[in-house]
Amino acid sequence: MSKKYVYFFGEGKAEGNAKMKDILGGKGANLAEMTNLGISVPPGFTISAEVCDYYYKHSQKYPEGLREEVEEHLKRLEKVTGKKFGDVEDPLLVSVRSGAAISMPGMMDTILNLGLNDQSVLGLAKLTNNERFAYDAYRRFIQMFGDVALGIEHKKFEQEIEAIKAKRGIKLDTEMTVEDLKELVERYKELYKREGKEFPQDPMKQLWIAIDAVFGSWMNKRAVDYRRLNHIPEDALLGTAVSVVSMVFGNMGDTSGTGVAFTRDPSTGEKRRYGEFLRNAQGEDVVAGIRTPESLEGLKKVSEEAYNELFRIFDILEKHYRDMQDVEFTVERGKLYMLQTRSAKRTAMAAVKVAVDMVNEGLITKEEAVMRVTPDHVDQLLHPMFVPDEKKKAIEEKRLIAKGLPASPGAASGKVVFSAKLAEELGEKEPVVLVRPETSPEDVAGMVAAQGILTARGGRTSHAAVVARGMGKCAVVGCEAIEVDEEKKEFHVGDITVKEGDWISIDGSTGEVFLGNIKAIKPQGLEGNLATILEWADEIRKLGVRTNADIPRDAKVARAFGAEGIGLCRTEHMFFDNEKIPVVREMIASETKEQREKALDKLLPMQKEDFKGLFREMKGLPVTIRLIDPPLHEFLPKEEEAQRKLAKDLGISFERVKEIVESLHEFNPMMGHRGCRLAITYPEIAVMQTKAIILAAIELKKEENIEVIPEIMVPLVGHVNELKYVKNIIVETADALIKESGVDLKYLVGTMIEVPRAAVTADQIAAEADFFSFGTNDLTQMTFGFSRDDSGKFLKDYLDKGILKVDPFKTLDKDGVGELVRMAKEKGRSVKPELKLGICGEHGGDPASIKIVNEIGLNYVSCSPYRVPIARLAAAQAVVEAKKND
């Protein structure tokens, strides 16, 4: 028996159902489902998406027997409707519609009124006693067929309509007379000839050209772009199905019309019917915006019976699909027909409200509600975003000038400034966007003052990206298209020049850079329905969620967002403020151990107070503190003026300071003098930091009765002996202080697994470590051999050419880096079964990475404060998905 490719629906029963979306597409599957529910749907048949798959795998040829199967179903449709395809007296007219398993609104093609020709239009006019309707349907068909199937530009047809309307002095299509429409049909045919095309009079020829066009639209540019932009892999779907549906007409006069509706408000999620209705019109008129539609109340004026029936169907569909629906319908002479239903697109606010309401209404479970809200929804509710229409307008006006890496979500507009100092001065009075080639620790105060940050260089884990995410500040980094000229105080994108003081807008969720000011929507915050969804997520998830926080302000934000501790405190970030940086520089420029210890003694009380602030905000929750990690040159000034000041402060020559700066500079800091290597060379740094941590915990316990168990983390360990050496320093220092204080204080000493050797020898390292935290930013660099700051120059090529499917700095590389993490987990726990394992790289806030981490079986993820709610949701979704897969 040959394979079935065509599925019929009509007369209250269908060969398909809603579960067959993969082969019938969303449209075909839901038409079949509504038919089975007894809802009034025009009969028709769907050609399977398997045909589309075959079509592209076999040089755009159809499988054997398809034509015969389509013709057989066409005869069945003729029998059900009582009309004949191609008949000149009572013609069967059909729409030919696209539809994939995943909704791609407006991306593929549809043709209406197919089957009309010069003879059957006369029969349709006589049959309906409505010549105007018949010719309106005919001109629409010729226009859509020419545009969709034969590639004649849509605007050329519109020019012909406008010419007639101008000649007649009318504005609306509905004001055209029968004679106008007949003239328009002839004008269209002449347009075909001018374009070297022929309008086919044979309906069967029309049908197959239309089927070809719909299957062809699967690979049109807008559909391919849509799948790419929405991260739908090309191999995830078979293609589009083609539904051939008998026509019902909304353009048959004042008792007819067409509409689009939602079972709830797609903007707010309120339980109210929402939609638009257009009298005496066909479906594309609503979408095209040629005429202004009425609300659904307009349908009531046309037919109260159809109005009541539509609302009854809303209830049936919501209860059946257990989700908010987006429907298309037509009323033909007072009778209602449903043309489509699908899960409705909705705003973030609506998604959260509908999910919570549907649980309260008993329609869905808490697990289903958690799956209905996406991480992007949460992101949008916690960060400012551009008003969609305003952003769309900016794109249409060609104000989108560049695209970088989306480093920290949100939307920001402001005047361009090129120095952190100016950002600090102006930031309190007016909105500014700080534009830099790249940022450094010296820029932090300016970054705080700016609305957003734009850098020409750097990756998602660069200084600008990491610091901006911690602040919840919008940032776009690695925008290679911009050339920053700091001397002239301007930047260039091709032949566009943007000067200091000019307005720009940046979108940290997409990486887009716009000229001018775009209006933004303020974030909603973590309250109400969103708080409810996240509470349900907490009940489901297995992974703990901690935060990366270096200062009390960030810790406070993270706690408010539900963080269960700090998974990474980067102590070096505490050195960046104006009070500490001179002392840090004094320590680095010291010529002797005594000089260095003198500087460290000044730093100790400052660090201690910082740790007390973090411990206080965390109220006894775990706090993992990484000892100083980056290379020393990152703390030294690059500018001559700052170097001269440092020389004066230290009482040494400017030349000597310059010499020190140059001698410490490293071309590949990842492999240079940093991490545990600094503590091995300068043990006094590790002593000072341990003292600051332990003294802070002791004092808080004595003064405020806050129990703290500090987790001290040694970075960049590749060999167990490195950890042993630094651990001995920590233990000796900590134990002496605890003994002296008389306070019972526990602490842990662990390490970051961020070089491949550490993962491979994790069993040896576990013998010395109380915990592992995977620094996946650096582990990704070392495993791939990509520099996180420079890879932006070529990573786009890797992604565009399909060499890599995802940016490994954004989503954890499951097969490489992920396997190293899995190996380290298994080796580490073979030595210590209860070894605590977390991930503190930027992957800790990425939903796709969280899914991988959940599967590997770590204890927690740690991410920037503003990603905590997203991580809570994603961790729950990972559990639900895993359960479903099992």
Q: Report the strand count.
A: 32
Low-confidence stretches: none
Strand content: 15-25%
**CATH homologous superfamily heading of the domain at 541-570 and 608-628 and 672-885:** Phosphoenolpyruvate-binding domains
Radius of gyration: 33 Å
The amount of helix comes to 40-55%
Question: What is the helix tally?
Answer: 35
CATH class term of the domain at 541-570 and 608-628 and 672-885:
Alpha Beta
Helix-and-strand structural type: alpha/beta
Overall 3D shape: elongated
CATH architecture of the domain at 541-570 and 608-628 and 672-885: Alpha-Beta Barrel
The largest sheet is: 8 strands, mixed
User: What is the CATH third-level topology name of the domain at 541-570 and 608-628 and 672-885?
Assistant: TIM Barrel
Q: Strand sequence of the main sheet, in spatial order?
A: 13-23-22-15-16-17-18-14
Determine the mean pLDDT: 90
Distance between the termini: 34 Å
Task: Tell me the layout of helices and strands.
Layout: E1 6-10, E2 13-14, H1 21-36, E3 44-47, H2 49-57, H3 66-81, E4 94-100, E5 110-114, H4 120-128, H5 131-149, H6 154-168, H7 178-194, H8 203-217, H9 221-229, E6 240-246, E7 257-262, E8 274-279, H10 283-288, E9 294-295, H11 297-302, H12 304-321, E10 325-332, E11 335-343, H13 348-360, H14 366-372, H15 375-382, E12 385-386, H16 388-396, E13 400-403, E14 405-408, E15 411-417, H17 420-427, E16 432-436, H18 444-449, E17 452-455, H19 463-471, E18 474-477, E19 483-485, E20 490-493, E21 496-499, E22 503-507, E23 512-515, E24 520-521, H20 528-540, E25 544-548, H21 552-560, E26 566-570, H22 581-589, H23 593-618, E27 623-626, H24 640-650, H25 654-664, H26 676-681, H27 683-704, E28 710-714, H28 720-741, E29 748-753, H29 756-760, H30 762-766, E30 771-774, H31 776-784, H32 792-800, H33 817-831, E31 836-839, H34 847-856, E32 860-863, H35 868-885
Parallel strand pairs: 15-16, 16-17, 17-18, 25-26, 25-32, 26-27, 27-28, 28-29, 29-30, 30-31, 31-32
Antiparallel strand pairs: 1-2, 1-3, 3-6, 4-5, 4-6, 7-8, 7-10, 8-9, 10-11, 12-24, 13-23, 14-18, 15-22, 19-20, 20-21, 22-23
